[in-house]
Amino acid sequence: MNLQILSLQEIMNQYNVWQLVRAVEWIRDLENMLAERCQEGFRDAFLPYEYTEKHVKPRLEFCREQCEVAELHTPLRRLGGVLHGKVNARAISNYDLMVQLQELRTDIVEDLRFRRFALVPFDKTEIYDKGIPAWQTVWKRFPKAEHDTREAIDSYVLGLNTATVFHAMRIAEMGLRALARRLRVTVSHKKGPMPIDLADWEAVITACRNEITRLRTLAKGHKSALRLQLYSEAAEHCGFMKDIYRNPVSHARKVYNAGEALGALTRVYDFMQFLATAMGRL
């Protein structure tokens, strides 16, 4: 079975509820205007062509777009049926259009009873809005990290804290293995050398530390010493994350709260930014 994992942006379409509220407000405004025309003796008349083109059709289209995003099927049938046909053919009176709009609002309310929306707290909204652009530097150096980054941020804003830590560790693992490849380390197993991508964290970190120690005995000059110091700091970052986050979350030893999840995501962000900058400079 091929399961496609969608991001929050793909699932929610960055949907803001105010858009649906605005659509309903515009429909109500049209109702009120039509009610006034009916009271003025234009009950069976039609709206002027210019007004229909400039105000009625755009508002109905906006309403349709919001109903499509929210999957409100009953109002969509009305919008695509009698309203679409008669409004475009200018074959609906002021009174009939007013009644159809009233029923459209009722359709929206009724369908909304069977829909669920995720509320993102304001502070997390800010993290989401600012977090995605902040990762661009990392993604340029580590393109494959983008998917898990978005998954981690999506999980955090939705309150899935342990999932946040899980995806954050997947991102960190990409950085660790990139560091190992930069150092050209060899990871050994009982049966001999094994690919870096298949070795566990402990083996890769140990190999990186051993290689850094070996290179220090050969290093000459300030630049070499600086490079090894940066690599050493990166390896120590990985060792810390392995013990605090990676092992517990991978072996179901701990459930994380919001503060811990944000801490893990922040630490991984700092680590990956550090690697992206260091590898670009050295």
Q: Please, could you describe this protein's structure?
A:
The chain is mostly helical and 282 residues long. The chain folds into two domains: 8-112, no CATH class; 122-281, no CATH class. It contains twelve helices and two strands, in the order αααααααααββααα. It has helices spanning 8-12, 17-42, 49-69, 73-88, 94-112, 122-134, 136-141, 145-157, 161-183, 201-218, 222-250, 258-281; strands spanning 187-189, 192-194. Strand 1 and strand 2 (192-194) form a beta hairpin. The longest helix is centred in the last third of the chain and has 29 residues, at 222-250.
Mean pLDDT: 86
Low-pLDDT stretches are 1-9
Strand order of the largest sheet: 1-2
Main sheet, how many strands, which sense, barrel? 2 strands, antiparallel
What would you report as the Rg, rounded to the nearest angstrom?
A: 29 Å
Task: Output the helix-strand order.
Answer: HHHHHHHHHEEHHH
Task: Give a quick rundown of the structure.
The protein is mainly α. It has 12 helices and 2 strands. The protein folds into 2 domains: 8-112, no CATH class; 122-281, no CATH class.
Topology:
Blueprint: H1 8-12, H2 17-42, H3 49-69, H4 73-88, H5 94-112, H6 122-134, H7 136-141, H8 145-157, H9 161-183, E1 187-189, E2 192-194, H10 201-218, H11 222-250, H12 258-281
Antiparallel strand pairs: 1-2
